[in-house]
Design goal:
Layout lengths: L1 E10 L6 E2 L7 E12 L6 E2 L4
Antiparallel strand pairs: 1-2, 1-3, 3-4
Length: 50
Amino acid sequence: MASVFKRSIWINPKTGKACRRSVPGAKRGRSRIWYYKVIGDKRRYPGYSD
């Protein structure tokens, strides 16, 4: 069995792109990519439509 999710990322409000958490004014957002994780496996894999 696997779980499907989107990762949390930090977004720079000035550029609208992903940044580090330490950037002043950074806000939490969601990644555009879906990921899946298989039970018993520590890695996460990018999900694809097909």
